[in-house]
């Protein structure tokens, strides 16, 4: 369903190109354009994926599913209009990005806008241009200053863009005011991230969480949404709201929608609570079996899934897109000396994560918070790895996981030159340089993991009745079996057991030596 035909601005004809260049003239002094007029430079924050095909083994077909439209389920048709129009329209649109920055922070704003471009592309939009305005604070009423907003309108018109995305979370009133000036739809970074999450969520829990986050975001914006909606829905405005003293077109509908949204949100919250016991049981199970766990955490697009695939052939979807992974995938693996552990791929982090989505991250965060070792993957080829490190560490700190041993991996080292290596070394002297693509550093990473995961070290001799075969399996998986003997009462085993599962094995312990 996706229109993949690469249409660059040049194809829109010479007139448009001229108009565009002229329109741009004015912005030079005022603003700062990131993406080249040719379209060639746009959002090349994402690199080409083509050599990576050998790591795909079927999950890539998800992608087509994702590109298809996704409905918010269980809502009335009316309401589907509201949410769908807004979120669906985001895709396949021609967008112009805007941002503001206080003086001295241009590089940061530049990186952030590039990231927004990647986000927009991931959501399915085509980025035509990006503009930054320097000002101490965003304008409280129109985000960009009034004059710049007017200029933006000219740029948008000359490019034929239909959407503007602001690199921030706009107040509902700001969004409306700016929309009134530029005359095309205005959305913000939060809406884009929510859109990506709603396209990518796969598990039932993930879907419910993302839908809840969307509705939370939507609720205070409903009035404005209604307005742009009626424009898009093609002329519900007018007729109904004509009478004097009437509440205006769409207003009643909005009230109705508001109530429906509340009801739906309550239902979703209940549903999400319902997932908790299953998740906890899974966790308890893992602790009981004492299999040490390693969580791969890191900024989005750092190459977490690629690393998991490289190590375990897990076949997790790898995509040159942000938030390709939204559900944790766990695979078993073994240290070189044969100790089993689990390897879990998690959702990537991003700066300015919409607060509505923090809940949606919770299960992934638990995964990280419970781990015995955190493999913190950083894209070594990224222009600002330090801030990626900091963003992820903040989150790790928030979930009290700072005491968990962490191995920092600078991935994509195939793209990192010697100078950059020195810089990275300076940031993190003990980091492992690795490449999921070439395999560099993978053995070193695995050796580090083996050093850090807790070893089974308590020697116990147990007598396990024959009908309790699962205990023997547990010893094989989580511990190290040294000797086995079959006697009349059951299996007599001598094994090394993890310190934290000694208690659960007590009942089988052979206390007195025979
Ligand atoms: N050159 C190079 N590219 C890599 C390497 N590892 C991953 N990539 C590319 O980086 C992109 C992101 O990889 P993923 O494994 O999907 O990243 P992720 O961290 O799981 O991303 P999300 O799940 O979206 O948060 C893909 O285009 C990969 O092909 C590497 O070692 N070298
Ligand atoms: Mg991933």
UniProtKB/TrEMBL annotation:
Protein name: GTPase HflX
Subunit structure and binding partners: Monomer. Associates with the 50S ribosomal subunit.
Molecular-function GO term, any one: ribosome binding
Transmembrane segments: none
Residues binding GTP: 298-305, 323-327, 345-348, 411-414, 435-437
Residue ranges of domain Hflx-type G in the record: 292-457
Superkingdom assignment: Bacteria
Keyword Repeat listed: no
Organism: Galbitalea soli
Family assignment from sequence similarity: Belongs to the TRAFAC class OBG-HflX-like GTPase superfamily. HflX GTPase family.
């Amino acid at each position: 369903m996706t229109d993949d035909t690469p249409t660059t601005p040049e194809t829109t004809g010479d007139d448009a190109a001229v108009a565009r260049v002229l329109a741009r003239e004015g912005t030079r002094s005022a603003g700062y354009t990131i993406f080249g007029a040719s379209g060639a430079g746009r959002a090349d924050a994402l690199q080409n994926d083509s050599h990576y095909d050998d790591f795909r083994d079927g999950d890539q077909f998800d992608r087509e599913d994702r590109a298809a439209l996704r409905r918010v389920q269980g809502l009335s048709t009316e309401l589907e209009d509201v949410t769908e129009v807004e979120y669906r329209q985001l895709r396949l649109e021609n967008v112009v990005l805007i941002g503001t920055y206080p003086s001295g922070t241009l590089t940061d704003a530049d990186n952030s806008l590039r990231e927004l471009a990647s986000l927009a592309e991931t959501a399915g939009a085509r980025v035509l241009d990006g503009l930054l305005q320097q000002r101490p604070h965003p304008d409280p009423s129109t985000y960009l200053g009034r004059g710049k907003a007017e200029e933006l309108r000219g740029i948008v018109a000359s490019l034929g863009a239909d959407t503007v995305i602001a690199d921030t979370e706009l107040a509902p009133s700001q969004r409306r005011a700016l929309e009134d000036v530029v005359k095309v739809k205005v959305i913000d970074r939060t809406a884009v991230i929510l859109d990506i999450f709603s396209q990518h969520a796969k598990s039932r829990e993930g879907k419910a969480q993302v839908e809840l986050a969307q509705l939370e975001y939507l609720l205070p914006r409903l009035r404005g949404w209604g307005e742009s909606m009626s424009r898009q829905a093609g002329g519900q405005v007018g007729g109904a709201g004509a009478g004097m003293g009437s509440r205006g077109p769409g207003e009643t509908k909005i009230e109705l929608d508001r109530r429906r949204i509340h009801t739906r949100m309550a239902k979703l919250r209940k549903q999400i609570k319902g997932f908790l016991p299953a998740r906890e049981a899974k966790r308890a199970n893992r602790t009981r079996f004492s299999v040490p766990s390693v969580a791969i955490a890191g900024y989005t697009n750092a190459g977490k899934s690629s690393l998991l695939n490289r190590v375990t052939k897990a076949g997790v979807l790898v995509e040159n897109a942000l938030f390709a992974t939204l559900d944790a995938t766990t695979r078993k693996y073994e240290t070189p000396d044969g100790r089993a552990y689990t390897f879990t791929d998690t959702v990537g982090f991003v700066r300015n994560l919409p607060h509505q989505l923090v809940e949606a991250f919770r299960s992934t965060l638990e995964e990280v918070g419970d781990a015995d070792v955190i493999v913190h993957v950083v894209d070594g080829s990224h222009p600002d790895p330090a801030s990626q490190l900091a963003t992820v560490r903040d989150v790790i700190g928030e979930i009290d996981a700072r005491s968990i041993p962490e191995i920092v991996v600078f991935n994509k080292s195939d793209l990192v030159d010697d100078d950059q290596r020195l810089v990275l070394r300076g940031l993190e002297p003990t980091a492992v340089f690795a490449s999921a693509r070439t395999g560099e550093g993978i053995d070193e990473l695995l050796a580090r993991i083996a050093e850090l995961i807790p070893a089974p070290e308590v020697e116990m001799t147990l007598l396990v009745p024959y009908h309790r075969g699962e205990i023997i399996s547990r010893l094989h998986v989580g511990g190290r079996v040294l000797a086995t003997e079959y006697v009349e009462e059951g299996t007599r085993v001598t094994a090394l057991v993890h310190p934290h599962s000694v208690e659960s094995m007590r009942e089988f312990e052979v206390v007195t030596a025979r």
